[in-house]
Each structure stands twice: as structure tokens, then as C-alpha cells.
Amino acid sequence: MAKGKRYDEEFKKETVKYVLENNKPVAQVAREVEINENTLHGWVKKYGQQPEIKAVQKFTNSDTELKALQKQLRELEEENEILKKAMHYFAKSPR
After folding, report:
1. What integer pLDDT is reported at residue 60 of this predicted model?
2. What does the alpha-carbon distance between residue 73 and residue 76 come to, in Å, rounded to a whole number?
3. What residue segments make up the domains of the chain, in order of their start?
4. What are the residues whose beta carbons fall under 8 Å from the beta carbon of 57, sequence distance 6 or more?
């Protein structure tokens, strides 16, 4: 069984940045750089959540941005509720 081409980490990260910055479909970018589409999907999944790469991602429309902000709001509200419960717990417990 033949092994596929090996790419260095920097190439992978830059390709993922390119996908996210330009908001192009993964299939199109895969054709442009001549790599397998599934390979690029894996890179996006692996590197797409890194802070330096996530920061370059642009929102395509207001709906996408709104959904992302609503998700962030839900997470912050949940964290706030947890902190309130902890505050009440520690305020009631005898020392």
C-alpha cells in the first residue's frame, strides 16, 4: 500500500487559514492546492479551533454571526448560573 504525500504543519495551518479567511468551500480549496478533500476537512477539524486560526474566520452573513453570538450568550449564562449556585452553596455552609 502506497503512502500519501506528507505535508508540514505550517502548510496545513496556512491552508486552513486560507479556507476560513476567504470563506471558500473546502472542496474548492482542495482542488486549488491539489490535495484530497477529505484530508483538508480533517485539517479544518483539527486546526480550525486553534485561537490564532479561529481569529481569522470571517462570518458570511449576519445569521451566522447571530447564531455564534447566541451560542456564546447561552454558554455565558450557563456559567453564570453555575457561579450563582456555588455562591449560594458556600454562603449557606457552616464553617
Report:
1. 58
2. 5
3. 7-58, 61-95
4. 20, 21, 48
